[in-house]
Amino acid sequence: MNDADSLFIKTIYNNLTEDALEPDSKFYEPIYDAYTNDLDYTAPIDKLFNQIKLTSDAVGSAHFFSGYRGSGKTTELKRLKRKLESEGFIVLYANA
Fold first, then answer.
1. Which residues, 6+ apart, have CB-to-CB distance to 75 below 8 Å?
2. Which of 7, 10, 73, 82 is buried most, with the most CB atoms less than 10 Å from its CB?
3. Are the beta carbons of 77 and 93 closer than 8 angstroms?
4. 30-82 pLDDT, tens per residue?
5. Got the DSSP string for 34-65?
């Protein structure tokens, strides 16, 4: 990798420290929508939503989410939070 490539990649990586995108951001890219016609595929947030909704009679639940910096964890969790709240759930979100 030459110096120009290294600087370019370093700049992009350092830009990933920006705040997460809000669910309705014009910069949000719906990467999972490409699979909506695949009957065997469910987007990760939809899987979590369904699991939470199906177990909502229980006392509560905790779900842990991990991944690389800038991979979209917080953005997707904000989408899940909005979806759950629209269904009447009380959502507590803690960014660790």
1. 20, 21, 22, 23, 25, 28
2. 73
3. yes
4. 777 777 676 677 788 888 898 888 887 776 677 777 888 778 888 888 999 99
5. GGTT-TT---HHHHHHHHHHHTTTSS------
- Which residue do the tokens 């507590």 mark? 92
- pLDDT interval class at 18 (50, 70, 90): low
CA–CA distance, 50 with 42 (Å, rounded to integer): 10
**9 to 5, 18, 42: CA distances (angstroms):** 6, 16, 32
How many other β-carbons are positioned within 10 Å of the β-carbon of residue 78? 19
Tell me if residue 69 falls in helix, strand or coil.
coil
